[in-house]
Amino acid sequence: MRQKARSDGQSDTADVAVIGGGIVGLATALSLSRAGVSVAVLEAERRVAAHQTGHNSGVVHSGLYYKPGSSKARNCVAGREAMFRFCEENAIPHERCGKLVVATERDEVGRLDELERRGRENGLTGLRRLDPAGIRELEPHAAGIAALHVPETGIVDFEAVARALGAKLRESGVPIVTGARIRRVDTSGDGFALHWDRGVWAARHVVNCAGLHSDRVARMCGLRPRVRIVPIRGEYYRLRPARACLVRNLIYPVPDPQLPFLGVHLTRRIGGEVEAGPNAVLAFKREGYRRGDISLRDLAETLAWPGFWKLALRHGRLAAAEARRSTSRRAFVRAAQRLVPEIGDDDLRRHGAGVRAQAVRADGALHDDFEILEAPRMLHVLNAPSPAATASLEIGRELAGRAAKSFGLEIPGA
């Protein structure tokens, strides 16, 4: 029997507690709720989608970049279509507008070839190689020596998707408890006692979708995950409205295959605004959306992780370049001008930031694929980078399937 959250701070119970009210946690809770078991969503902030979901670029990724056969590739391609269907069924504004990946230097053309190969192997349709004239036909102000047109890419407001998921959960009787930051987890043979500021939730099973705090929640549950979350801030600029006409849809550079970041790109949002970004710099707080945001605890944990220093040594030159773009608008403008040379020094205005929960292994490797740790009565999503928002409905379905097997639940379609 489902129970609502009580206002007196006493214990409530659920068969499954989903920790984290971002888009992945909400999608997982929705899939789990179809099993006929009681589910509760425990969200640390005062609203759902407060962090990674509500601070991303709104791109519905096609599945172009990811290694064929990887969890990212599989979930992105299926999740993209599930996302478009969900938006259609729930009247959420979205567009399948397509994007260009533009090579501006000769040594990028070979990498463009590899992207096209990956895209075709991942099942993308309609991919087209373009010469400079073809680039100008689709994006008249873009510049490059070659490009790949990816028509299955789209845009949406993922925060609106999260609100729709939350509404469906509440209609199904699933409580979404906000302000429920987990402080301690006690385990027993019967399950878990999840302590938060106003009481305790008792749950037989736990699904950890806590994003920026997922590794901490796993440690509270008695596990020793092999990764540490290092917060990476991505800072955005926005083209002033009079210059938004320089970008019709989405224009991306050819990414470095050794890194999980796509580089500064130009993205039209669902409301018509055009964003440039993001860069990638170390945040000194897990929710460090501004350069002045500092948490001594968060920073100490990052600096104490041996993988951070190995990562810094391996990618010091890149980190320096990203830091320059963080402190110098001119450096950021130059990155945008590689794609659209007409962007001027006064055309970009700072426009917020997001913080990526980047999982880093002890050897300094950036964990690039989804990472899900299973333990008795528990599932922990320890790494859910882009395209997690795109793939959220598919990830939720997959997590529900794993729960059905691991927890002994009956979930239709899992």
Description:
The chain is an alpha+beta fold and 414 residues long. Helices cover 30% and strands 26% of the residues. The chain has a domain at 99-151. It is built from eleven helices and 20 strands. The strands form three sheets. Strands 5, 6, 7, 13, 14, 15, 16, 17 and 18 form a nine-stranded mixed β-sheet that branches. Strands 1, 2, 9, 10, 11, 12, 19 and 20 form an eight-stranded mixed β-sheet that branches. A three-stranded antiparallel β-sheet has the order 3-8-4. 50% of the residues are buried.
* End-to-end Cα distance: 21 Å
Q: Hey, roughly how much beta strand do the residues contain?
A: 25-35%
Using only CA atoms, what is the Rg?
21 Å
Q: How many beta-strand runs?
A: 20
Overall morphology: globular
- Proportion of helical residues: 25-40%
Compact overview of the structure:
The chain is α+β, with helices and mostly antiparallel strands and about 425 residues long.
Any descriptors?
414 residues, alpha+beta, 11 helices, 30% helix, 26% strand
